[in-house]
Amino acid sequence: MIRRVTVPSLFPPPRYSHASVVEAGTKLAFLAGSVPLDAGGKLVGEDDPVRQAEQVLANLEEQLHAVGSDLAHVVATDVYVVSGETAVLSAVWDVVEASGLSVGPHSSTLIGVACLGYTGQLVEITATAVVPEVSHVS
C-alpha cells in the first residue's frame, strides 16, 4: 500500500525517506498541525521543546486513531520547531525518531521557525497518513 523511496543518487537521509508513494484508490488523511496542548487546552512542557514534542506526538496519535489510522501509516510530516539552533531541532527530531513514525520511515521536513500559533508553543507537526481498509469478517 505504501512504497517508501530513498533515492540512491542522493545523500542518504537519517531515518526518513525521500518520498512515499501511495497507490491510487487509497484513503488518505491530511491532519491539521498537532500542537502541545492537553485536552483542557493547557500548554504542556513550557520552555521544553522535547516535552512539547512528546505531547505533540501523543496528540498526533489521537488524531490518527480518530480517522482509523496510526503512526505506522503516516507517509509525510512537517516538523516545526521554534529555534534557529540545530541542537534544539536535533533534540526534537530524536523524539520523532523514537516514535512509531520511524517505522516507515516516513518522508519528513524539519523546519526551524520564528513562532507558532499558541503562546509558548515550540513544536508543531502536520501529517499525511494512509487510512488502511478494515477487513470485514462475515
What is the secondary structure topology, with strand pairs?
Elements: E1 2-5, E2 19-22, E3 27-34, H1 49-66, E4 74-82, H2 86-98, E5 107-113, E6 123-131
Parallel strand pairs: 4-5
Antiparallel strand pairs: 1-2, 3-6, 4-6
Helix pairs in contact: 1-2
Protein architecture, described:
This protein is an alpha+beta fold. 22% of the residues lie in helices and 30% in strands. Helix 1 (49-66) runs parallel beside helix 2 (86-98).
Task: Give a quick summary of the entry.
The chain is an alpha+beta fold and about 140 residues long. It contains two helices and six strands.
- The number of helical elements comes to 2
The number of E-state strands comes to: 6
Largest sheet: 4 strands, mixed
* Unreliable spans: none
Mean pLDDT: 90
Order of strands in the sheet with most strands: 3-6-4-5
Structural class: alpha+beta
**Can you tell me the overall shape?**
globular
Percentage of residues in helical conformation: 10-25%
* Element-by-element helix/strand order: EEEHEHEE
What is the terminal-to-terminal distance?
24 Å
Radius of gyration: 15 Å
Could you list some keywords that capture this structure?
alpha+beta, single chain, 2 helices, about 140 residues, four-stranded mixed β-sheet, two-stranded antiparallel sheet
